[in-house]
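Support case: 4'-deoxy-4'-aminopyridoxal-5'-phosphate complex. Customer-provided input:
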Amino acid sequence: ASLPKREADLIARRDHVLGSSYRLQYRRPVHFVRGEGMWLYDPDGRATLDFYNNVPSLGHCHPEVTAAMAEQAGRLSANTRYLEPRLVDYAERLIATFPSALDRVVFTCTGSESNDLALRIARLVSGADGVIVSSYAYHGTSAAAAAVSPNLGDAVKLSPSVRMVNLPGPSGIDEANAAAFFEAEVRAAIRDLDRRGIGVAALLIDSIFSSDGVWLDPPGFIAGAVEAVREAGGLFIADEVQPGFGRTGSHMWGFERHDVAPDLATLGKPMGNGYPIGAVVGRRAHMDRFGATARYSNTFAGNTVGIATADAVLTILQRDGIMENALAMGERLASGLDVLAGQSDAIRAVRHAGLFFGIDIGRDAMSPGERRAMALDLVNLLRDDGVLISTCGANEDTLKVRPPLVCEAAHVDRFLEALATGLQRLSA
Ligand code: PMP
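Agent response - structure generated as follows:
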């Protein structure tokens, strides 16, 4: 179907004023004017189910969060150089959710800024420059974060100090050998960095490896690699932008699934349920080393409005059984997908923790290009059917499904129905 004139005109106007690095999502771009809970509404009032957005974890425009944000915005917006009780209250409450060794926090505005700052700290503390990342990782948009994001294309190739390591799952390694494989990959990267006199500053990973295609099992497989990096004088930075704040249902933080505590954890996305706020949480020794010689000032980070918002988010997350719900709905979705996978050979594998799912698409006989095309077709069929998802993975043939954590059984069933219909239409 061709686009309505209203949307076609908007696209033309965008193209005249926006930089060409912008991309619209979906073949028929979406246009929403209102969000509520799991739903997004277009100008005609038609509802679309959001099964993609991990920023509004508590649901779009959660009334308690927006009230806290608006109340503070109407009273005072000030920065971290002034005394502010709520800043300290929130810092205390946030740190209490971490293992006791991680006892200091610095606020940022985005996940990219969190990783950027964590890299500065790791390089200063270690005295080394090298950073080890997974082969299709994304860690952000600043120059330093883009340089450790192979997912972006050429940025990593321009960075002599960055090493990419293969993950066991996509390399076809079974779970029993996953830890040994990953540790060997990381040790080889460390040896190469040492040989070239670069040294290792950090292993920076998203512990559910979301942009690599959601490779999160078996729990614990990263532990040997983390140990190897520490032996070499580097830090383990856990990028919690995707798994953090309860996405996995079982744990508040993704690294906890692997039972390893990081030196630094980087936070973003769901922290403000839509308001831009992030943080680096870390061990005092590292933070003190950094603070003794370096300065970090960030005009908007940790401002009163962001803190009021994040504080409301954390309260609701802890009060309303959000993680329990993520766990239960994740299981419901997993069993539904099991049934679908039994009916369709176009679902090759399903991986998940809580409400973060990777669904590999494509038949065995298909080429990588055909699989990618099929995954993209499905994403667009679902969009036309009123359900939002996207893709991830090195071949972009894995469906990325991560609904707000407040989704209910009826939403899960609606998604499953849309996926079943989409698969049927593709095989017809
Ligand atoms: N790290 C990870 C794992 C991410 O997925 C993202 C964003 N997709 C970022 C960092 C960067 O976060 P932001 O876009 O808020 O800067």
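The chain has a mean pLDDT of 97.

Case will auto-close in a few days if no follow-up is received.
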